[in-house]
Every structure is written in structure tokens, then in C-alpha cells.
Write a structure and sequence with these properties.
The protein is an all-beta fold. The chain has a domain of 31 residues. It is built from no helices and 3 strands. A 3-stranded antiparallel sheet has the order 1-2-3, with no helix packed on it. Strand 2 and strand 3 form a beta hairpin. The relative contact order is 0.17.
Length: 66
């Protein structure tokens, strides 16, 4: 797959289905940065996308140290 605005391919292995051109895929990774309306997600490599294309599937609250 090629991620728009990145000039290199990103490999995804899914032997359970046949991918077709234009098919949407769900990629899951930890958020590393939020900058205005952009979100950077670690997919190895880091990928920055518009926040409207990201959905939260698990919330995380950092522990509070006293």
C-alpha cells in the first residue's frame, strides 16, 4: 500500500483476504503526537494523518505520581 504524501510503499500482510484497489484498511498503532488537526501514529514508520481519519479504540490515562 502507498500512504498519500509519503514516497515509499508500506507492506501489510493479510493472508485472510484479497485486497482490491481503493479498499479501506484499518491500521492500528499508538498515537505519538497530536498537532492541531493532524495526528501522528506509529505504524513503523510514523504516519501523520488528518484527525478526522483517526478513531480512538482504547483510551489510556497516564498514572499520576505523587
Amino acid at each position: 500500500m502507498t500512504i498519500p504524501s509519503y514516497d515509499f510503499p508500506h507492506s501489510v500482510v493479510d493472508s485472510t483476504s484479497k485486497a482490491v484497489i481503493g479498499q479501506h484498511m484499518e491500521l492500528i498503532g499508538p498515537v505519538t503526537r497530536i498537532d492541531g488537526d493532524k495526528v501522528t501514529v506509529s505504524l513503523r514508520p510514523l504516519v501523520t494523518v488528518d484527525a478526522e481519519h483517526v478513531r480512538l479504540i482504547e483510551s489510556h490515562v497516564a498514572p499520576i505520581f505523587s
